[in-house]
Amino acid sequence: MAYQKGQEANNPAYPPQQAPPPAYPGPPQQPYPTQTQPYPTQPYPTQPQGGYPPQGQAGPPPVVVQQPTTTTIVTTQVQTFGDNPAVTKCPNCQNTVTSVTGRECGGLVALVAVAICCVMWPCFWIAFLIPALYDVSHTCPVCKYRLGYHRKI
Ligand SMILES: [Zn+2]
Question: Ligand 1 centre and the CA of 131: distance in Å?
């Protein structure tokens, strides 16, 4: 009887001291990982992924480069008028029309008339009979807007 009581008294005393350690690591490990995960993962990955991919894959940049080239073409479309009627867009009525030409006495007619007058003055009026010496005016047949003027000199 005495040995049994002594063994029972010694054995239960040692194990209780070694047992408590495993109880501490359990509770502190659970709360930390759960709290730290939600904060860094949610806000950071969603914002940068949404903003960067569209800029790298964007096709629009090349389209923007083509726009200035089209504007330069518009500026180069300067209508030049000659002796014959020309098809052009009237800036006043916005219609694409064939200009109506008209002769106007310009500087070349006067210059030739003076030149002829120096050689044989009675024949100076011949200069007014030459259509090629007259300036040509181009007008819109719809609104009579003056589209252009072709000067010989
Ligand atoms: Zn017009």
Answer: 26
